[in-house]
């Protein structure tokens, strides 16, 4: 079956060796993007083609640069959460929680187990939503609209659960430093249980459509492959690295938010091509479901916020009645309580890979410097290497299977 | 490469004879579509039918009045300070003796503006308010606008009407 594809890129890449070639009219230059209907998001690829074959390419970034790292230098810690929403907007709760955990690491706040388990549930739901989008859009790009249409109902149910917890669906601003903003109510738990019942059926149907589909396999196997070695050289993480055969997962390697309490497996594949990335994401959704079920069953009952009066907002009722609570409320909102000095790096397993926050605090109300380690930014640099030698339609499939989200490409 | 003991390798079995044919999978996809044709519809007929939003949904802002119909806002500026999008601006004024039935505290907001183009509906203003004055309603959205001058919501559109009280916050 593999011999049907000629596109597998076996050339060993060295970083940054891709440049546009001098052309005397023999090569066609094609601008794939910035607003190309077949790429999902705002990114530009200048591709040089010899007939149907891609011979060279160059990627451009910066089309939706919003200066988040600079903005963060003027914002108190709790106001940076809405900025992280807009990094990978397909799984914003993961970004939110990652940021809260970074700040908690700096402030040395211990979060109660219940809040940690709630965070795990929300993060895994977000991961499912992220992988669903990636896999179903890959289906659309290969011409199978059916799968996309029916799994999106489940993404809708995930967003309804987010709505119950935090009040919005997409740009969630979920959780607070020191825990969650409110406890899980009965409506949220009922919706979560309904989702856990319904989702496996839909996912199985989705898999029955793609996993052993000859047309889909022919279209994706051997397309846009990357070896484990060069993936590591580029700094790949997440599903794209696991598809190449390295089982690096931050949840297992460096557990945060009580991930060590849960049983789950890390699916890996071999070739690092589009089909393997699809399969890894598909299996990860099952593992995420497993984690959610365990977290819901084992959920302790020790409060959803840390009892840390200097950094966690007091209860609203107390603010209206007691003077002490009102003073702390003002101090926290105004950012009057200084953070300790220090440097902190914390990373979480985002929807696309290791999402890291490097925070330097000089002891003030705002970060001195904040850097987001955005996995999509790293994947996108390898993109020209991965598509050279393949055809244009394969380049589109490769881009969507890497799940490069424009919001995470630029910060 | 194995870094942890949780690894699970994905090894799909080779396709059998039927799976290697192209036609059956086309009908398999079609079969799923036809099956869904007879299932319950996922869509609702908006705007006649509206989906029930969660009680904590973050919609359009409202400035609340207290039980006597006086404005709760005391122009402390905490919401403007907490706003990450810098969408809120206000001007405070001192209450005179004749205005005691209008404003709850001695200081009130003479001007209170929310720029709906800047607002990101993060809900931090609601969380910051120590007087239970500003809330994000669950049943109203910011509408679409035709001009930029409509976008800045002043007190005329933000403060709740005395007769038609909104069911948010302490009135819930």
Describe the structure in your own words:
Chain A starts with 27 loop residues before the first strand and ends with a helix. Chain A is built from 16 helices and seven strands. In chain A, the strands form two sheets. A three-stranded antiparallel beta sheet of chain A has the order 1-2-3. A three-stranded antiparallel beta sheet of chain A has the order 5-6-7. Chain A is mostly helical. In chain A, 48% of the residues lie in helices and 11% in strands. In chain A, α4 runs antiparallel to α15, α5 packs antiparallel against α6 and α14 packs antiparallel against α15. Chain A folds into two domains: 59 residues, no CATH class; 342 residues, Cytochrome-c3 Hydrogenase, chain B (Orthogonal Bundle). With 172 residues, chain B is an alpha+beta fold. Chain B has a domain of 108 residues: Alpha-Beta Plaits (2-Layer Sandwich), CATH 3.30.70.3270. Chain B contains five helices and six strands. Chain B has a three-stranded antiparallel beta sheet with strand order 3-4-6. Chain B has a two-stranded antiparallel ribbon with strand order 2-5. The longest helix of chain B has 15 residues. Chain B is elongated. At the A-B interface, α2, α5, α6, α7 and β4 of A face β1, α2, α3 and α4 of B. β4 of chain A pairs parallel with β1 of chain B.
Strand-residue proportion of chain B: 15-25%
Number of helices of chain B: 5
User: Biggest sheet of chain A, open or closed, and with what strands and sense?
Assistant: 3 strands, antiparallel
Overall CATH class of the domain at 61-168 in chain B: Alpha Beta
Helical residue percent of chain B? 10-25%
Number of separate strands of chain B: 6
Q: The CATH topology of the domain at 61-168 in chain B, please?
A: Alpha-Beta Plaits
Give the proportion of residues in helices of chain A.
40-55%
The string of secondary-structure elements of chain B, in order, is EHHEHEEHEEH
State the distance separating the first and last CA atoms of chain B: 57 Å
Structural class of chain A: mainly alpha
Per the CATH scheme, the topology name of the largest domain in chain A is: Cytochrome-c3 Hydrogenase, chain B
Describe the biggest sheet of chain B? 3 strands, antiparallel
Envelope shape of chain A: globular
Number of helices, counting only DSSP H or I runs of 4 residues or more of chain A: 16
Rg of chain A (CA only): 22 Å
Question: In percent terms, what proportion of residues of chain A is strand?
Answer: 5-15%
Indicate the mean pLDDT of chain A: 89
> What's the helix-strand series of chain A?
EEEHHHHHHHHHHEHHHEEEHHH
